[in-house]
Design brief:
homodimer; 424 residues; alpha/beta; Aspartate Aminotransferase, domain 1; Aspartate Aminotransferase, domain 2; 2 domains; 8-stranded mixed beta sheet; 4-stranded antiparallel beta sheet; 42% helix; globular; aminotransferase (chains A, B)
């Protein structure tokens, strides 16, 4: 038996010099994240975050489901799971993907810590330092952090109202190939895009797949919002029509609960095999309890009914935002009209800068994310507005305040104070 | 609104050629993991896995705690959390570490998906491809996977019964520095080491810290088993005496439940800041629900009482294993005597090879992990035995079977069959 012999404290041990890896120098705090703490002030209506609404999370059902998992499985639900993820859940994920036209098998699926980890693992498995990743411009902010952490070069391709512009994508691939630095993959959020809310048009989907195929570039389709449509079902997933050329990222974070951290990646089998190994060295395995809870929810509760509740709630908030934008925004401001998802992308009048305007906005009681966060460069005239978390009333109040802020900023005025905004 | 226009299926889209990143070629299936599925056969007593005992997991308490979290926090427990982890839990983790002499503050702590993710993030933040990581030989098998995934070169340092040999460590550092490829960090499991069960001696702790300090090498202390001691408390953590030179990895996987995936890393503030950024790009944030559950357990249940139950249970199984080893093993077999943790490290008689013996062992109704899995090379005469998961009775039966297998293997015989082992 050991006896307890405390090690004598060393005399003032100086810290060793810290030699971070090269990639670590590219890890810098995201401006967007810093803004979220600013937006957390109680007197500020935040249109910044992309969190789901608490009312859209089936808290009571998940609470009961967790009890049922313990009832049925006992301590086994608290053990290590397999690196690839719960086999039953992987089958159910295939059924979830089938709603978007994807025909997948459980052995192609890896369960991940949200789709963020899926993207990190895909990047880890494919990207050498200096490799090029092509994205839409703008693109999801934390995807940019992931690519930076893996020392990827990011090249953006222009979007219009129907999503990424196919000719621009083809030109970019050709230019990169001519440079001798061909794209490693094209990362896209084709449906209810973050941050613009746009949808890649039906005809364009076939075009984009064909362009990637001809260029021999893998397509990474990130689709956390596809099931949150406000009207008819959106177009089939890109993965549905080119399973061998597409790595698909899915998530229950927007539809069920971010706090369970259950997402997934579906990839061609040879890719999935590598992703499983990468996941094992990255975390051994995902939470078995969280996976069993999602699995049981899908098995015993009404997934469609739950989605209908969420869609209806977000549609109401989107409507509130669009109505208030139309009613209050000054001339020269334009915005997208999302048919699903969480976001509206707003363009300020020429001469205004969304980042420079932030202090005035917070002073005026409203927060948003400046467009620069979603670009490697540019985006200064853009603002991402989210209607997912605040109530419809808060959404309207936030938009009214923002309209005042923009008017004031355009006038170059210095008079907008929170107290006036509240008093009016 | 979108209309649903299915994309026409493309004609036979061929798969793009897969160009994996360089690091991906180093991701190969671990022999150890493959063995676990072999060991899952019902007629085999597995001494292979390192899972905690179901009886040592406070399933009922965690079930109740989860209900209380929902009761107190509602849907908020299902939201995204901060990238660094729940602030209350980070304070409690500091109290847990205090039991091993560590004085840490919550801002130094990052909550991770088990300590496996902590190790992955530490490696990501410090290791460039080709950099050298120094480990004990043998060392934790999935640490080797993590280092391989980051293209690290691993150099092992010999251990004896008191843990890593200080002179060998100093010589290794000197040699690496002379080569112009100094060690990036020294990874060690100083207390109830995986796979040997050994403890780094009290005097050696100060020596090892001093050697690292002089060489300017960061020390990464992995300590998942420290609180599972069978006698008096083990020595102070290395981190306790050199907080500026040590990155400390902790975990609730062995003490509370692996299925919640809650571990942590404590590092000097400048390192933690980078680790938080790495974690954010790797997974956004950990499960808030899992973190709140652990936090509430620590707050409202008897942590010490729970640890006492677990210690007593594992002590009983260790005793069973040691008694049966002493009673049945043939001459020429030796083993370690762990004072805590999950593992016994056995050395076969000269001429025997643990990996080559595996088919005979499974045939004989017992599974273990061959020592080669814990080394970059060598270890062929060693076997890791775990007593954490099987009951004391199963431990005894497994050891008896293993003794027969070793006898048989040493005799070069071909007669050992499962039915005979069962019949005797």
């Amino acid at each position: 038996m050991l006896s307890f012999q405390p090690t004598p404290p060393l005399d003032t041990v100086p810290a060793p010099p810290l030699h971070f890896a090269d990639r670590t120098h590219q890890m810098v705090p995201s401006e967007t994240r810093a803004l979220f703490s600013m937006a957390a002030r109680e007197d500020v209506v935040s249109l910044a975050g992309g969190m789901p609404s608490p009312e859209a999370l089936p808290a009571q059902a998940l609470r009961e489901v967790l009890q049922e998992v313990f009832e049925a499985e006992g301590a086994s639900a608290l053990q290590y799971g397999s690196a690839q993820g719960d086999p039953v859940l992987r089958e159910q994920i295939c059924q979830v993907m089938a709603a978007e036209g994807i025909g997948a098998t459980p052995d192609e699926v890896l369960v991940t810590v949200g789709s963020q980890q899926a993207l990190d693992l895909v990047t880890r498995v494919f990207v050498n330092p200096g490799d090029t990743v092509v994205t839409e411009g703008p693109t999801y902010v934390t995807a940019l952090s992931t690519f930076a952490a893996h020392q990827a070069r990011v090249v953006e391709v222009a979007m219009d109202r129907d999503g990424v512009v196919p000719q621009a994508l083809a030109d970019t691939f050709a230019l990169l190939a001519a440079e001798g630095r061909p794209a490693t993959f094209f990362y896209t959020v084709p449906t209810f895009h973050n941050p613009t809310g746009r949808v890649l048009g039906a005809d364009r989907r076939a075009e984009v797949l064909e362009i990637c195929r001809r260029a021999g570039v893998l397509l990474v389709e990130d689709n956390p919002y596809g099931l949150l449509h406000f009207g008819e079902r959106p177009h089939r997933a890109l993965c549905a029509d080119a399973p061998d050329g597409v790595v698909y990222l899915g998530s229950f974070s927007k539809t069920l609960a971010p706090g369970l951290r259950v997402g997934w990646v579906r990839a061609p089998r040879a890719v999935t095999a590598k992703l499983v190994l990468a996941a094992e060295s990255a975390m051994l395995s995902h939470s078995k309890l969280a996976q069993r809870a999602v699995s049981r929810f899908l098995d015993t509760r009404s997934w469609q009914g739950h989605l209908d509740v969420a869609r209806s709630l977000y549609r109401g908030r989107r409507d509130a935002m669009l109505e208030e934008l139309a009613a209050t925004m000054p001339d020269g401001v334009s915005w997208t009209v999302p048919a699903g998802g969480f976001f509206v992308w707003l363009t300020l009048p020429a001469g205004l800068d969304a980042r420079a305007m932030m202090p005035r906005a917070v002073d005026g009681g409203v927060a948003y994310v400046p467009g620069t966060g979603f670009h490697t460069r540019g985006g200064g005239r853009n603002v991402r507005l989210s209607y997912s978390y605040p109530t419809a009333g808060q959404v309207r109040e936030g938009v009214r305040r923002l309209s005042d802020v923009i008017r004031d900023e355009a006038a170059g005025g210095r008079t907008s104070r929170l107290r006036e905004a509240v008093a009016r």
